[in-house]
Amino acid sequence: RESAAASVARWKNRNYEMMYLNVLGFQFDYQGASNDENRQIGPYISAGYSDEDMFKPLKKYHGVEVCKYERLISQCTTEKLIKEIKSNIPVGVTYRHPYCDWSKQKDKTYLLITGYEENIFYCLDVYASDPETKILSIQNFERYFVEQKKVKYETYKILPYEIKNVTMNDFIEGLNQSEYVKRDTLEDMREFADFMEANLDFITEEKGYDNWHFIPLLLNITHILRARRLLSKTLDYIYNLTHDSIALDASIEFSELSAKWKMNWILLQKLKVTRYQKDDPRFRKMINQFTQNIRKLAMYENDFVAQLRTNQYHPNIRICAKKVF
Prior knowledge:
325 residues, 6-stranded antiparallel beta sheet, two-stranded antiparallel sheet, 8 strands, globular
């Protein structure tokens, strides 16, 4: 949905970078992981933000309003979607590939419906590798949602304004509304490191997942590192408008933090591929390196965010994220 919102904004000549203001976070549910009957850790970590955390600033700063709906499928529902599209309001739906005329895959995708003619929708497949417009028969569309009993969809409406006089104060305001600040994130990250060190078993983590990309432990760390990269993008946007050097320096720091999380993701990927047993000294060495990295990141991020929030960030007198480990 975030990608769809960005696509609509670009299509309508709007910016979208301020929608990432509130995405900084890290959550670890220690109790949930401790009580999980499968002993999996991955489902209990998250980046700590939702679609709504992005859609609020998207509307506030860029005038792109995303509204969510859930309705029982009927002819009336299809007609309502057509009415939105005819009003130049794109509609987004989660959809399964078997009902797509252009794909034989089984996975879900997200379609952004942008046009209509008799019996067909014109749409963009947000997850497809090619950006070309797809043609979807309304008959297939209705067949799929009849099976689902109801249809969940979003509309993307362009409002008559966009705020462009943004500053670092707007960024700090967003940071203060993020889950990173609301929770004791430092403690969450430390607990995560301790729990991983004592309990990680990749055979357990990948149970039930044929595709390793969807193993929750790896997937959720991808979301965490991506959030840091998106914040870097927001700061670049602010710098380009204000030429505030603090925004540029902070953007570089968030980009480096994302890279450090990526290094940890790669380390876990190596652990999975090597398939060392938990009591193998090589496994212990690699997991110890991972958990030490997490603890160092926890301290650095906590200090960095605290300085940004209180306008005490001075890049010339601090250790940069590149040197954390």
